[in-house]
Amino acid sequence: xxxxxxxxxxxVVVALRRLPNPRLTGLGAGLFASATMLVIGFLDWLLFDGxxxxxGVLFLPVSALTALWVRTADLVTAPISVPIAFxxxxxxxxxxxxxxxxxxxxxxxxxxxxxxxxxxxxxxxGLITCVRKVRDMGRRxxxxxxxxxxxPGGARPGPRSGAKPGAKPGAKxxxxxxxxxxxxxxxxxx
Length: 190
What we know:
Distance between the termini: 77 Å
Mean pLDDT: 82
Number of helices: 7
Number of strands: 0
Low-confidence stretches: none
Largest sheet: none
Radius of gyration: 27 Å
Order of helices and strands: HHHHHHH
Shape: flat
């Protein structure tokens, strides 16, 4: 048998690999989504007279990018920050008047009326983060399996049970009244 033949990647995959791949912290992903949706809200208000369909359609890719660009350690923040970004971005197109009370009432009404877009974008972000988390867990299990297979005797690397860290391999922990938690400093024998 020869070496496996690698097929060329489809053009869509090649194009996607050329896109930027930033890794944002949880706060950075929330700020990215909020700022982007605020800009989209103002542009929608200026160009399309506050069209909810344009705002909702543009919210979906922002949700996807937020979920794709957040780093693995902060995956849980993407589905949380995306609805907040929607609420921030809907302020310019909510159309309230009459002071703070009128603006707040218009914002709550706009959130209720556009809940379908809000749920859709949150679902997109949630699905993407779930898929990324499952892939990361599989990658970690494979790496742990390779590490276990490479260890002598197939054993898991690391300290043996009952041994102190840094102790000689095979040495067992001493048992007695003075060892363990709560044992005070040793006093010299009189």
